[in-house]
Design brief:
By secondary structure, the protein is an alpha+beta fold. The chain has 9 helices and 6 strands, in the order αββααααβααβαββα.
């Protein structure tokens, strides 16, 4: 048996495999036959790059924090162990076991759904639809306003009012912010630049209604009471089509997916057995 390791992303991209939803928003596509390189042999049978891609689709989210090389090695090792145990099960004639048949039926349906769903979404969401969305909602739309603000966070309204009075009497906002009950205290309360919706609603509403240089009255949020200073405003730079492509693709896939699923459900005959008399009881899998 030979085993070697390479960076996961480099290996999969190089051989035409994209695991999970990836940048396109679609699930893994099988590699072309000539590109699906065997990367390990177990009992004379190959484990290929497409096997690793499918394993990454299955487990990639749980391994997202691992470095690519370590992730690749983990998935390959898991596939090797799986093959060894599966071969042992076949030697024991486990193929006809009722529990095996039950799981095969479950996963057959899952695989059919997954592959068919990818094909549906690829038909409905194309690069052209991404470009059309970008042109309408980003390129031609007015650039959003961003603000540069600072704040002071305290526990009570009385504390916020006391600090507001000190600032009115000549104390700088930056000095007053040293008592702020968050990490911004070290930077004079500076929160940097942010856009609409980036902060909690009460804070967001207050800061975007302010004028440059203005200090707010005390504003209450779930975090406590804030004094807010609006330092500056600007129009945000619009992303290029390339920069926005993946996010738009994911958004359109979600939107089309919801619409498609609603239509399929409406066309299907669905009956929850016993729903009128009692809640269905889960049967633990053996």
């Amino acid at each position: 048996m030979r085993v070697f390791c390479r960076p996961l992303a480099v290996s999969l991209v190089a051989f035409g495999l994209v695991a999970g939803f990836g940048s396109s928003g679609f699930a893994a596509e099988p590699a072309a036959a000539g590109n699906d390189e065997a990367i390990a042999m177990v009992n004379g049978k190959p484990i290929t790059l497409s096997d690793v891609a499918l394993a990454d689709e299955e487990m990639g989210a749980a391994l997202a924090r691992l470095p690519e090389e370590q992730k690749f090695q983990y998935l390959l090792s898991m596939l090797i162990d799986r093959r060894i145990v599966a071969d042992a099960a076949r030697a024991k004639k486990m193929q006809d076991d009722p529990m095996v048949k039950r799981r095969e039926a479950y996963f057959d349906e899952k695989v059919l759904r997954d592959v068919y769903w990818v094909q549906l979404m690829q038909d409905k969401v194309s690069d052209q639809s991404v470009k059309d969305y970008y042109d309408t909602h980003i390129a031609k739309a007015e650039a959003r306003t961003e603000v540069h603000a600072a704040h002071i966070l305290v526990s009570t309204k009385a504390e916020a009012e006391k600090l507001a009075a000190e600032i009115k009497d000549g104390k700088s906002f930056e000095d007053a912010a040293k008592v702020s009950q968050d990490s911004s205290a070290a930077n004079g309360g500076d929160l940097g630049w942010f856009g609409p919706g980036d902060m909690v609603p009460q804070f967001d509403k207050a800061v975007f209604a302010m004028k440059k240089g203005e200090i707010s009255v005390p504003v209450q949020t779930d975090f406590g009471w804030h004094l807010i200073k609006l330092i500056d405003t600007r129009k945000a730079k619009k992303p290029t089509l390339e920069e926005a492509h993946d996010e738009i693709m994911r958004s359109l896939v979600r939107e089309q997916g919801n619409k498609t699923m609603e239509g399929l459900r409406e066309a299907a005959k669905i009956e929850i057995v016993g729903a009128e008399t009692q809640k269905p009881q889960m049967t633990p899998a053996p």
